[in-house]
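Action item from last meeting closed. Structure (378 res):
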């Protein structure tokens, strides 16, 4: 079976008008979360939004707001080294345009969110996987990184915390990656959602020492739970000469698109502030769901892999079926939707991915149905 088989089963279930318990919900605007609606609407109302100011890297006030937002997290980036984009996907596209020629390669983590192949292919770039290994906790398999290197490698992508493993890049791993002498592109969209403190954690890829160029990605989509606002950013660090060269080239790329809307740029500071309410609710819900899930699997044939942060959890289930077969069984027989691990390039069976963003009642009912089926069949 394939993930397409899961999609077909889902279409059939929805056509039958059955109530599906969706444990894959990742859209915060549909997850029954509180929003500061008045502040969000007011943020889009400034009169400056009626004036078109085509600035390649984004309005100065918006970039300053992002710089202050990062500073509050302990990461200092001058606004002149911040580039606004419409999404992190567009930021990846800009980074690949900046760093690669057609047929060049970028190293990407596996397992991870199934987006890199599409984004790289659209830029005529080849994504080459390196392993995230699990031995009770997740870590970057550095030998696999070195083995993946070739004369055409132009950058290393890391996601911290990774989706769906929830693993952060550690300080020693970042040192080792930087020592390879390649640009590092770090996706930090989930960075504000840790489940526990960890002194070994790299607070940001921007703190990498020795890397010639570092590009950190963030945005409103996860940080303020506002994906519809379409505002993300690239923050640059590294060797001053390399950073200046990169900014010059990025200016040409960004000027060709000018994709970020004026109203959201004018409202960036207010939108980041308004997101505090929703961010706090996400922290509470994801932690509550994770604690409940860990307790619920105790004594069952399922287990929850270690997760350090983010919005997702990985549940390991018996290999008596393939994970796709399990996913379809849960959907067809129990009306519960989960992701099979193969969708994220897990190299072994059998893993299911669930979203901790799911409303608590739905999450617990769906997970209970999964555990009941496992008890009957294993």
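Sequence:
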């Amino acid at each position: 079976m394939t993930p397409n088989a899961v999609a077909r089963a889902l279409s059939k279930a929805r056509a039958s008008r059955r109530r599906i318990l969706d444990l894959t919900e990742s859209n915060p605007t549909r997850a029954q979360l509180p929003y500061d609606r008045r502040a969000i609407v007011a943020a889009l109302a400034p009169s400056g939004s009626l004036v078109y100011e085509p600035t390649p890297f984004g309005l100065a006030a918006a970039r300053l707001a992002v710089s202050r937002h990062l500073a509050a997290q302990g990461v200092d980036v001058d606004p002149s080294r911040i580039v606004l984009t419409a999404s992190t996907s567009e930021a990846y596209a800009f980074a690949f345009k900046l760093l690669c020629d057609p047929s060049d390669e970028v190293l990407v983590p596996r397992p991870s969110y199934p987006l890199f192949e599409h984004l790289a292919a659209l830029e005529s770039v080849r994504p080459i996987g390196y392993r995230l290994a699990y031995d009770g906790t997740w870590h970057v398999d550095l030998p696999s990184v070195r083995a993946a290197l070739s004369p055409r490698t132009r950058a290393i992508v890391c996601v911290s915390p990774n989706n769906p493993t929830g693993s952060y890049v550690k300080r020693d791993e970042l040192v080792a990656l930087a020592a390879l002498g390649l640009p590092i592109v770090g996706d930090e969209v989930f960075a504000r959602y840790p489940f526990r403190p960890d002194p070994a954690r790299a607070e940001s890829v921007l703190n990498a020492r020795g890397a010639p160029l570092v590009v950190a990605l963030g945005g409103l989509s996860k940080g303020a739970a506002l994906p519809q606002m379409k505002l993300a950013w690239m923050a640059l660090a590294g060797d001053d000469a390399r950073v200046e060269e990169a900014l010059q080239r990025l200016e040409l790329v960004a000027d060709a698109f000018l994709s970020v809307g004026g109203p959201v740029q004018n409202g960036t500071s207010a939108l980041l502030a308004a997101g505090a309410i929703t961010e706090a609710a996400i922290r509470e819900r994801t932690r509550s769901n994770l604690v409940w899930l860990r307790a619920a699997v105790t004594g069952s044939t399922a287990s929850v892999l270690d997760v350090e942060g983010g919005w997702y959890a990985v549940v390991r289930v018996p290999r008596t079926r393939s994970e796709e077969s399990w996913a379809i069984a849960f959907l067809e027989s129990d009306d519960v939707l989960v992701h099979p691990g193969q969708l994220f390039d897990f190299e072994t069976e059998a893993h299911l991915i669930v979203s901790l963003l799911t409303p608590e009642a739905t999450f617990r009912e769906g997970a209970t149905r999964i555990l009941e089926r496992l008890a009957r069949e294993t």
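Note appended to the action item: Residues 37-273 form a domain with the Aspartate Aminotransferase; domain 2 fold (CATH 3.40.640.10).
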